[in-house]
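Contributing new records

If you add data, match the layout below exactly. Sequence lines come first and carry their own label; structure lines follow with theirs. Keep one chain per record. Anything else will be rejected by the validation script.
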Amino acid sequence: MAAAGNWSRLTPAAASVAEAAEEALPGTPGWQVGSTAGRRPGLDAFADQVSVRPGDPVQLFISSTTATVRLRALRIGDYAGVGARQVWAGTATAAAQPAAVVDDGVVPGAGGLRGTHLVRAPWAATTTVATAGWPEGHYLLRLDAGAASRYVPLTVRSATGKGRVVVMSAPLTWQAYNSWGGASLYGDERTRAVLAQAASFDRPYSDGFGSGRFLTYDSPLSSAVQGMRLPVAWVTDLDLARHPDLLDGAAALVVGGHAEYWTAGLRDTVEKAVARGTNLAAFGANTAYWRVRLAGDRAIVTTKSARLDPLATTDPHGATARFRDAPAARPEELLTGMRYDCFPAQADWVVSDATWWGYAGTGLQDGQRLKGLVGPEADRVYPSAERPTPEQVVAYVKYPCGGRGATAHSGVYWVAPSGAGVFVAGTMRWPCALDVVECRDVPGAEDRRLVRQVTRTIVMGFGEPKAGLRHPAVENVARFWLPTRSTTGAS
């Protein structure tokens, strides 16, 4: 077997052996940051890159009121249910760093846009960590200083996805919601965050004890897929936006519970891969909803309205708006088969076609409910000319959307002309059924077991390209109440 960190050089078969060997190693109990330590002030940190190749250095920027900071690198995986394995440990000497600064000037890549309220941490680098010997994968760096603890997310990325199941995390979306320093791409009455039009990676994450939204929406899929012992490639959405060749020849792309913000280039890359036969499994909702633009190497820009984007006339393909909006409208159902339709959503997953191959071996029957699995955002099919066919609705329930009228949730499976199979869960809560550590609302134990089994069936079935040739979709959209227009104000 190749040395740890060199999996990209292996054949897919050898890579699956390497994954199995890694999975057989003992996990590290007690690796999680507790809520008390995670909220205690006096410690914050971020890395200079969202991903590195094995052996590449990563710089950490740490602000700490305690001089000695303990560092640990935790590779996320199943590890017999433990959830992570420590692959490295060290220490750093840190000090308190300056407060956040706000840049309302011109941001590179913003097309002359001003007033973006870009927040960054003007910190000096604290230490450099070498990643030699670290296996490819999604990681959390855990920092402990005195009684305070924090995470820093990092991916040790693969060099190729050829013949592999590619697992993508979503830092573009984590960053959109990041309010560290007082601004996010939303604004927030609770945190008093200001609405910004640009977000910098040069700052810590405000949520997830520094992990962003990784633990809630991405790590459960990482753990589940590693436990299947397939040949896997590990990347971020930012990697795929910058290096489209990472999906060349990939068997499948696995996307987590909330990958809402995509660049136009990322959307192009994934659509082209599906058109070549790469399967797509999106275990979430609101996927590929907002179109953003990279601003240099360390920031993203979105005006959320093309009329506010100075580049909308010269670069309509990359205009920062919803993908479904003009100019160059590309409704999300062209990729996912569905549209985002409701927040807040709260409903059961209701089996609507138990003959679907993804339910094989579960014993699930039509009308059977997996309690509370749908929410807090949910998608549904819009029966329009844009949707793909054949498309099979495998879950369906009608429910009230936050007092704004009735709508429906649907989970779908469809097959592209290339033979690629596409599954989209249409609910952000799917990962919560795989790992309950970070989710407030989760299904019961038996329902979680069923979700884990369906997840395994899908991913294993997607382990070879063009799964739709082996598992055809049965067109059934016309059976269901699915209005062509929004009933919730989401379109």
